[in-house]
Each structure stands twice: as C-alpha cells, then as structure tokens.
From TrEMBL:
Lineage summary: Eukaryota, Viridiplantae, Streptophyta, Embryophyta, Tracheophyta
The protein, known as: tRNA (guanine(37)-N1)-methyltransferase
Subunit organization: Monomer.
Compartment(s) of residence: Mitochondrion matrix; Nucleus; Cytoplasm
Listed CDD domains: AdoMet_MTases (cd02440)
GO MF entry, a single one: tRNA (guanine(37)-N1)-methyltransferase activity
Annotated organism of origin: Arabidopsis arenosa (Sand rock-cress)
Amino acid sequence: MVSKLSLFRANSLPFPVFSSYSALFIHKPYPKPKTLIFCVFSNNLSSTTVPYGPSLLKGKKPLVDDLRLTSIGRDRDAHRGKIGDLEESIEKGGLLNEDEFTRVFEISAIRVPAKDCFALENRLRGHLLNWPRIRNIARVPGDEIEEDVVKLLGRETEDEEEDSIVDSVDRRIRGKAEGDGERLSSVLHRDKLARTFNSTGYLKFRNLAKISRPKRKRKTEKATERKEKENGSRRNEMAVVEVVEDGGGAEDFEGLLGEGYGSRGRWRGSTRLLLLDEKYSGEQVQDLPEAIKVLFAEAKMTDVSLSFELVKCRVTLFYDYWPMIEILEAVLPKGMIVPSAFEMVGHIAHLNLRDEHLPYKRLIAKVVLDKNQPKIQTVVNKIDPIHNDFRTMQLEVLAGNHSLVTLVVENGLRFHVDLARVYWNSKLGTERQRLLLGFDQNDVVCDVFAGVGPIALAAARIVKRVYANDLNPHAVEFMEQNSVVNKLEKRIEIFNMDGRRFIKAMFSSEKGRKVTQVVMNLPKDAAESLDAFRGVYNDRQRDEGLSFPTIHVYGFSKAPDPEFDFHERIRIALSEVAVDVKMRKVRLVAPGKWMLCASFILPKSVAFSRKNLSYVD
C-alpha cells in the first residue's frame, strides 16, 4: 500500500502559516493508491480585498510639498486622536483639505488616430477602462494643432494626400481647376464671375452681408471670463489624464508652439487615448489579450503605425470625483456608522446625526454640501425632538447659507416652507400621493391638521371643496400663500383653530353635511382627538340625509403589535367597540416605532352619542 502526501509550499500560500492555523488531515477511502491531503485553514485572515475601480486606499497621493497629512489609510489612527484639533480647525473655518483626497493611478492606454478611435473602441469592448464617470477615450494635450502650425512642422496631416489624375479631371469639369495650374474654360469663367460679382458689378463680401453682428462683450465681462478661466483649475475637474513620456529623442516645440508643448516628439497628427482596464497596467504588448495584439499587428501593416502605440498614462482623480460615502469613510473614525441618508426639503438637507457624530458635525455637513451642490445649499441638523404643539423643529445650520425658507415641489404643486416656523416631512410624499388616489371629484375633504397644505392643496385639484385647518398661525399664513401660488384659492377654505374645536364647528354647520373625507395627519395626538366626533350630530334628526365621512387617522405605536395597539386607542377615543378599521403600516420611524394609518367610516352610534365630552375648546 502506497500513500502519497500532498503538501502546499509555505511560500506559495497567499497567507503566512503560523501556529494559530488549524490542520486537518483527510484520508480518502479510495482503493490503491490512497492520498493524504494536508489542508490549512484560517479564521483571522488580515488581507482585505479591494473592489474593482478607483478607491482612496488604492491610489497614490501626488508628491506635493504643501500636503500636511500622509495617506488616509496609514494615518487614520493619528487622525482619530486629534478630535480636539479637528474641532478647533472647524471653528476657524478650515474644515477639510481637499488636496488630501487627490489620488494618482497608473494605467496603460493605446494611442490611436482620432478618426479611428470610435471604431477601435467597439472592437475593444471588455478590455477598456470601466470606472464610474471616467470616459475610456481621452484627448492628448497638445495634439489639436491648427493647419498653419502643422505646415511649420514640415509635415502635412494624413488627410491631405495627393489627388489622382481622375480627381484632377473631375475638379476641372466642376470648375475647380485653379489648383491644377490650368485656366478655366470661358463657360466656367463666366459662371465664376456670376457667383463672385452681384448685379451692380461689386464683389460680394460675406462679412458685409451680415445684418446683425454679435454684441461686443464689455470689459468687465471679458475680465470675469478671463479670471474664471485662470481659476478654473482642478477644482472644476474630476479627473485629468496625462501621458507619461520619456524625454529621450524628443523634439522640443515649446519655443515654437508655446508653453505645454515641450518634448512632444515627432508630430503624429490628431490622436486619442483608449484607456485600458486597470488589470493591464504595466503590461507589455506581448502580455495583452489577443484582441489588442491583433490591432497592433494590423497597425504595422498600414501607415498608422507611427500614431498607434502602447503608452503609460497617469489618471489623477480629485476631491470632486469621490462620492460622499467614500469621503466620510475616510475622515470619520474607523467603526463609526457613516451618515449616508438625509431628507431634502427644497435646497435644505436635513440631517439626523447621532451623538457620536456631533464632534464631526460640521465636517459631515461640509462633505454633504460639496457633494450635492447646487441642489443643496444649506445643511441643518435637528437638535431636539418635536415637543411643541406647532410641530416645529429646533434646527442648527451647519453649512451653507442660513436661510430656512425654501420652495418644495410635490405632486406638481409649489409649496413655500419655513422650517424654522412650520413642519414639513418630505418622506411622507409617497403616503400623501397614495391617500389622494382614494379621492374623486364628488368628495368634500376636511383636513384637520393641514400644515402648509400638502394634502389639502393637492386634494383641491381633484375634489369639489376642501376645508383645511391648522393651529399654527405661521402654517396657515404659508398655506394661504401656497393656495394663491398654485391658483387654488377658490377651491379651498382655510381655518386657524384647535383640531377638536374645528371638528365640532364643521359638523355642527351646514358645511359638515357634505363632508365625505376627513384627514387627521397628526400622528402624535390624532387618535386621541377622535373623541371630538362623539355626538357631532346630536342636534340633528337621524333622517336628515346626513353623511358619515371616511376618517383617515395617523398615529405612532411602539407596542409589539402596533396595529392592535393603535386599533385599541381608536376604540377608546370613540367609546365604541364595533369599529371596522382598515389598518396599514406607513413606515418605520425609528427602531421599534411604527407610523400607521387607520381608515374607517364614522359609526352612526358615535355621531349620535349622548356621552358627555370632556375636552377644552
């Protein structure tokens, strides 16, 4: 019996072999010969896989003397230990050095003639660079030179070839024979004069035929454009592609063409760069895939071999390229949850930062503002939960301008909102739209807690009439303004009073007889306000043809069974057990806290209830 021992060499393993690794011997019950396999396993591999594409951890930092910190990955611990210095720099306005996020990547590229780049791009699909927001075709700086300059270089462009005899004859037939050195025939000569002179015998100058000329730019506009061009440095660019060339044997055209054209080598004509995938970085032509080798073989058989070559390129990615999440992961301490989501209210980004984020709040706000401009112009953070009756939030402006008055567009309507004085929640936009789908043109809607009117004004475009109310006088003021802006002021009637008092006043009047839908979107207190419906029709006869509206009430619940808990609260408020309620979860507001919507028809027993009500007007 022969046993074979198969072992891995230690230097061939992708990880070092230590005593902490567990060894497992597997003896296969096969017939002769038997094989003994030695397997090595590890539960604590330190190597981390870097995903495809650019990353702050993969790229190299440029050699710039004024950089104050070393790479993000190596000095993360030192950066974490300077929270106090970070806060001090934040207060002084020095939030973040954007040069710290500049990264350089070495890749390979194929330099091809400009006229062939798109055709070659289709042939090399799958082998070209596939980075987000980076084109795999790049221009070569200095290649685009005017024809007059090309003549000075002593070489004409490739497109200018000598015409054949057939082409020369064809040009003489069509009256374009001046270049051949032969005189035009009398017929062609008269035709040329007819095109050159007008009826009065004067030459036609195309510049004089222009009736309207472009306006001359003022000196201030020219100075502004020149300044913007000078200041339009890398900050306005996400990436820059440069060709890494050796200076040996190259001709210096800087004295002839100006700065930026030195040591460019022999003029090749207009060319483009086809950026190859990052896995081909540093490879030679013989190591590339066959699809690329075929292109080089074809180029040698044609005249384009001079402008068809494999070059090394340097791709520089600046701060504007990196997404918000990657920047925050780099600057925040390791292990901290990165705030990746925020609510947008017009031009305002509304953050809900945790306590661990507060030392870095202005740094986070700076990144959020930079990565979402110009859509976002102000970044705020909610300081305290909502405790007041007006549902206004205590907000702290962290970055951008300090204006909290903004314009929100929802469901095709425009709403002016001041977050310092009124309440607005953009996350409920989908829920509001779902609620509106249940209304029709025969409905009359009563919105008890309307706010600035997102539901009331949207419903006014659909239903017959809307009665909207809110306790906050500032919200009522904005709702009246929004109704005029959206040209709906004739279809809505606005009130400013307590919710319970509004319900009693509406259903005790003739207006309440036509109400078919009641919306109570105040999750904190709406369920308890349902007691206002008890006995709303006590002063009316049962046979008067009264309407019993459908009530949509919202509320919060932290119970293990939130739907049952909210249903019980509705029953208690109405003092009615037999209430057919359609319950639906809207969204999870916080861990263990649900927002729900309950819809039911007002029971007759509740509307004609004789129980005494104990609420204060």
